[in-house]
Each structure stands twice: as C-alpha cells, then as structure tokens.
Amino acid sequence: MRCILALCVTATAAAACATPPRTQPPQERQFAQAVAPPQRLRPIEPLPPAASEALKARMAFHARDMNELVSDIMLLRYEEIRDRATRIAGDASLSRPLTNDATELNSAFPEKFFLYQDNLRLEAKTLAESAGRQSAFDVADSYGRLAQVCVRCHAAYRSGR
Predict the structure, then answer these.
(1) What count of Cα atoms within 13 Å lies in the side-chain half-sphere of residue 104?
(2) Which helix (H) or strand (E) holds 114?
(3) What is the pTM of this model?
C-alpha cells in the first residue's frame, strides 16, 4: 500500500513539472484593462465652446494643484496639503448665472457642472481641515472623495483624450 501511495505522489509531482510554463504573467489581463479607455455608461455631455474655452486655463492650474497635492499627501506635508486644498476650494468659484441672459458666460454651463463644483469645494475644504488636524487617515479619505469628484466631472465632460 505504501508503495502505491508513493507511486501516486511521484506521478502527480512529475505531471506538475511537465506542465508547460505560462507565457503571460497573471496580471496581464488586469494591466490591459487598466490602460484601456474606459467604457462609458453615458456619452459625454459636451460643454458649449465658450464654456470650454473659459475652463481651459482654470483646468491647467487645477491639474497642477492636484498633481502637487498628490505629492504632498504621499509625503504627509500637512501644511502644504492644507494650503493647496484651500486654494483648490477657492479656485472652484464660477458663479451660477444670475439671469437667463444668453450673454452671461456662466449661463453656458449646465447646473450639473455647478453641482460638481460645489462638491469639489466641499471636499477640498474637508481635506484642508483633515490636514490641519494632521490626521493621515482622514487626509487619505478626504483626498479620495476629492478625487472622485474630479473623475466624475471629467467622465461627464471630458472626451478622454
């Protein structure tokens, strides 16, 4: 009986060694999915040209601030995090149109855009408060919520280029 058991174990080990090696790393599928363009549930909601032009310079500054914010967060530079988050909150300041006058530039933005802006301002202020308390975990959570607002707005209004 021992001899049969030993023979089965040896045969199983030999079969395992005879299995051809994998040609692809197991993470290749996940990597391909990560770098592929996202599938959209809804088409983008293009902004009118005047609104899009008005945002270009503002978004360049916003992108710079967000990139620097990530660096500050990774290094837990609380004062810089607080200052940068406060600046982001202050820059999110396009006012809703006062009238339905078509000449008013802000009337080119849909209400949904202003809701994203309100959320951005709220989450940036929350991040600044977390940094003021020097709470690494609160900073991480607050930044995550801030980034969600950015991604959702971009998913709604950016073409993905």
Answers:
(1) 12
(2) helix 111-132
(3) 0.68
